[in-house]
Amino acid sequence: MEKKPLIIGNWKMELSYRSSLEIAGAIRKLLSSVDFNGQVVICPSTLALPEVADLFKNSTKLGVGAQNVHWEEKGAWTGETSVMQIKPFASWCIVGHSERRALAGETDEQVRRKIELLLKHEITPVVCIGETIEERNQGQSIKKVTGQISTILEGLHRSSLPQIVIAYEPIWAIGTGEMPNPDDVSEIMLLMRKIISEKYDANIADRIRFLYGGSVKPNNVSDYDTQPGVDGVLVGGASVHPMQFADIVKAIAVDSTQ
Ligand code: PGA
């Protein structure tokens, strides 16, 4: 791992408001004794954002992120959440998660607009990209991912690019226990960095953080976080189990000192 490790927990729609607070409290307690020179970010449901942010406010290790945001600042968008509404509580925001792309029809262009808006409000976008199982079986993984990177970054101001976090999540690995070959993950990470380096410059490419996501658990995290080009992980299922999540952080803390 090349930079300070970054570990993001995406709670999706798994927890009630009450459970969110209990689990946030348990994670804070478990991590308080972990010697970790990195950043942990929890993305609860929008409803729980204020309380989780309050629970983490005195921690230097723990941050809070939203799971999604709308691409417009405000307007007649029933049921959506604006950047203005998350801003007091969240310093991070996931965008373009494959579940939103698949279920809510989110496009790369919408993802790009969300990134722009988040950067304007100084919220770190955690941009998810990845290929489907069909694309993988057709040997199209690299083509898909590099295409997504190009569309998403198109038109973004170079000065704001280092703020972005990119999470490579093969869609077929999310919630399935199917793990990609760690060497393949590393290859994709290094390729993304190369594309950004050629389009902008090496300094920008080096500063962008790249995460791996998809079925990360305590027993497999070290296969990925130790790969060249991987700066951390995006964790779904295991992040709602405080012990499992803390064990992932501990494993990365150990790996990052070696
Ligand atoms: P998972 O989810 O860890 O449960 O596979 C990852 C994600 O959706 O970001």
Q: Descriptors for this entry?
A:
single chain; 258 residues; alpha/beta; eight-stranded parallel β-barrel; 11 helices; 8 strands; 41% helix; binds 2-phosphoglycolic acid
Helix content estimate: 40-55%
Q: List all distinct small molecules, including ions and cofactors, that are bound in this structure.
A: 2-phosphoglycolic acid
How many beta-strand runs? 8
Write down the overall geometry. Answer: globular
Structural class designation: alpha/beta
Stretches where pLDDT is under 50 for at least 5 consecutive residues are none
Note the run of SSEs as H and E.
Answer: EHEHEHEHHEHHEHHEHEH
Strand content: 5-15%
Report on the structure:
With 258 residues, the chain is of the alpha/beta class. The protein has eleven helices and eight strands. Helix 5 crosses helix 7. The radius of gyration is 17 Å and the shape is globular. The mean pLDDT is 94. The site of 2-phosphoglycolic acid has 12 residues, from strand 8.
Q: Would you kindly provide a brief summary of this structure?
A:
The chain has 258 residues and is of the alpha/beta class.
